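Hi all, posting the design record for the shared folder.

TITLE: backbone redesign
STEP: 1 of 1
STRUCTURE INPUT:
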């Protein structure tokens, strides 16, 4: 799926006129061109998606911060962190609790290079969600959910409150693995595929963090 295909899917859901390109000279294209990255960031921030999960050994910085012994630079493509852990260990078993590190600096994606983490661990690695801009890398289910999210914002701006409310409800229903449907009480062995979309140690999609 391309950017324009996804954009037109969102426009159709919002009952708005489709575009030929994000560079078209109309308000729909202008809005989508400006806000596409932010909508992608929002849906990536909803879950710890497997397709966007990355592991990185962090680089130590020669600076001091509060009571901590070590400070590390955080990735500039990070949407949000999942777990910090001592390098060389299993992050599912040896991750740091929130009182063992402190994140400081600018926390916006646009300026993430100024974001740091301080800890008493001499070697630190991170599991995090990476910002992915290329729509063809998105699983179809996530791309579909993104189209409803975009439709909600488009309808809010150009299509009316009723359509916006519908789109947001559809987004809420679809932002978790979609084969589950709306039944929150289904047995875990009936929701195969959930773990392929979410991080490998998380099974229950309704308690994903």
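Okay, here is what came back for every position:
SEQUENCE:
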């Amino acid at each position: 799926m391309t950017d324009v295909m996804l954009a037109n899917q969102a426009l159709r859901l919002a009952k708005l006129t489709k575009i030929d390109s994000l560079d078209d000279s109309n308000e729909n294209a202008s809005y989508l061109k400006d806000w596409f990255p932010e909508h992608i960031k929002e849906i990536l921030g909803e879950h710890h998606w497997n397709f966007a999960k990355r592991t990185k050994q962090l680089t130590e910085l020669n600076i001091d911060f509060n009571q901590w012994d070590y400070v590390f630079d955080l990735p500039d493509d990070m949407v949000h962190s999942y777990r910090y852990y001592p390098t060389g260990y299993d992050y599912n078993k040896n991750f740091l609790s929130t009182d063992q590190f402190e994140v400081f600096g600018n926390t916006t994606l646009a300026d993430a290079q100024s974001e740091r983490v301080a800890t008493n661990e001499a070697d630190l690695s991170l599991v995090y969600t990476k910002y992915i801009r290329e729509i063809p890398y998105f699983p179809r289910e996530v791309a579909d959910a993104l189209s409803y999210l975009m439709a909600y914002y488009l309808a809010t701006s150009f299509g009316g409150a009723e359509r916006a409310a519908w789109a947001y409800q559809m987004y809420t229903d679809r932002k978790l693995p979609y084969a589950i449907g709306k039944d929150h009480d289904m047995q875990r062995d009936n929701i195969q595929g959930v773990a392929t979309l979410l991080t490998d140690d998380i099974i229950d999609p309704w308690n994903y963090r």
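COMMENT: The first strand starts at residue 53 and ends at 57.
Let me know if anyone wants the other runs.
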